[in-house]
Write a structure and sequence with these properties.
By secondary structure, the chain is an alpha/beta fold. The protein contains 11 helices and 8 strands. β7, α9 and β8 form a beta-alpha-beta unit. The radius of gyration is 17 Å and the shape is globular.
Length: 264
Amino acid sequence: MSVRIAGIEVHVEGDGPDTIVMAHGWPDTYRLWDRQVEFLKPRYRCIRFTLPGFDASGPRRLHTVGEVTTFFRQVIEQLSPGRKVTLMLHDWGCVFGYEFYMRYPGLVERIVGIDIGSAKGLRRQLTAREKFYIVAYQMWLVLAWKIGGPLGDGMTRWMARRAHYRGDARFISSCMNYPYYLNYFGGAESLPRQMQAFKPGCPMLFVYGRRKPMRFHTQSWIDELRSRKENRVEEFETGHWVTLQQPERFNQIAGDWLSVTREP
């Protein structure tokens, strides 16, 4: 089943009592979660969508943090009225999803975060090499966003290949790069000005890939998560796209954790 909310197609599969809302990142679409939906839908109601502005067939424009978190709220209030949901998030889905949780904690029961942790203190702990990698690829994508068209799309696909992306390149477009532009050049709507420090007060599963040129979390944040018994942290021998590179292991870990942390 699919419905349109705020002009975006939202896919709903499964009919379990608990709802999982899945949000992807760059350079993905709702298709990132195909293997997870197949695994989880016999027991859970899975809701997924392509992030606002990430669909190349739609309008090409910036979407602010407020607009994206409002869209999350509209989806949850319309499709899970009166019931909390689990967020399953990757990459920019983590960034927007964590901010959604900070703004609307009463709508979230649990969080599954993939490869992106809290940004607090991260800059101080990155090596010079890691900082170079981050600025280099992000500014390339900012430039691709500004150029747009076939050239900007080609630049974006080239960077996805350099990052060892394993998804379908047909759906990659420079329109997906607007969050990077907002991060550096968003002015009053820039991410640093709009986002709160992420402090999960609900149960959280955090998984991350070890084999990549830069980190997106701090060890101190990992230690803080592990200090609460309802949380779980797992390292994978993968790159950034854990769910594509080791889907079976991820599904098993996520499924086990969801079962033991379900609210009565």
